[in-house]
Amino acid sequence: MKIQNNLRYGYTTGTCAAAATKAALYMLINQKPVFLVEIQTPSNFDLLLNVDFPFFNKDYSECAVRKDAGDDPDVTNGLYIFSKVEFISQKTIEILGSEGIGIATKKGLSVSVGDYAINPVPRKMIEREIDRILKNYGLENGVRVTLSIPKGEVVAKKTLNPKLGIKGGLSILGTTGIVKPISHEAFENSLRLEINQLSHYSETIVLTPGNTGMKKALEYGFSNENIVVFGNFLNVALEVIKYNNFKQVYLIGELGKLIKVAGGIFNTHSKVADARKEIFVYYLTLFCKGNLHHEIFQKLTNAVTTKEMLQILREYNINTAKFLNFLEKIIIDRVREYIDKDVKIYVKVFSEGD
Q1: Helical spans, DSSP H, in the chain
Q2: Which residue has the higher pLDDT, 62 or 195?
């Protein structure tokens, strides 16, 4: 795959699931084995992937695509994502999970409680490939897809899934379809270079943790050239900004990341520090001037994500827009204190899906 900074890119479990499904459907229709499959990711990478363990008969077909995380230290690297495909009488597309695929047990995730942890983008990838194939063959069949990951339940214990309330296995994930390698040293060097280069032709920099924040920044009208993705390393980005002549610094990101900054955490990786819940409750108590009912506190303590926590505030008629604005001011003060120079700082916090 594409190599950047001498590191090899990989592809997500979502890409593997879509590719395996595409190959399995071809086998079911043609009753012939498939050993290679081409798939386009949401980020417009065209991949040619190996197909393993192809099996088919007139009732169903099944195969697997092996997860390749490139040079990213991903615990799912090397696992096989299987897809079993069969025709059904209803003219719908059903996407189910089985062995090694986790089930959501808590609110606030991208899937509903009780559903298999197959996220929206991979679902759309699978549905798109099925629709295309059926149309190409002039078929109007319904299709049932059943995904599985052998050893997925064991490997999931090494991830955040148990903490997030995803039980019994891994998630089928991915927003871009591509895994970008995270080498701390390489990423930090690239980040420093990007910011230093930007300082030569712009006095404005827009910092964001990832793709979701970048999309939001573009919606706000910022130029792509001014947007810098810092991943988890806001500390590195701000250190570089200290020694450059930016006049305006914008920080745009999802609440789950930026609330850590309100608590003085500038390396936002969950393994470094994950006090989102505690910071949220602390500043909510200040926002409510100490009038935080015990029932609300208890519900917030049991919440899994900041998105769910905001929903709890709405249930109790607490103005979430004003609370987010309150947090933005706290984060501005934290960033200004960190940079310690005369620069205008703007922060925009949002909750994904709101």
Answers
A1: 13-30, 120-136, 152-156, 161-164, 184-199, 211-219, 234-242, 255-262, 276-287, 294-302, 306-315, 320-339
A2: 62
- Name the token pair of 124: 């759309």
Q: Mapping DSSP to helix (H, G, I), strand (E, B) and coil, where does residue 353 land?
A: coil
- Average pLDDT (152-179) is 87
Distance CA 206, CA 257 (A): 16
CA distances for 121 relative to 14, 48, 82, 83, angstroms: 8, 20, 18, 17
How many CA within 13 A on the CB side of residue 113?
7
pLDDT at res. 179: 76
Contact 120, 65 (CB under 8 A): no
Query: CA–CA distance from 320 to each of 38, 256, 280, 287, 351 (Å)?
Result: 44, 14, 12, 11, 10
Element (H or E) spanning 248, and its range? strand 248-254
How far, in Å, are 46, 173, 289, 334 from residue 340 at the CA level?
A: 45, 39, 29, 10
Q: How many CB atoms lie within 10 A of CB 248?
A: 14
Decide if 89 contacts 142 (C-beta within 8 A): yes
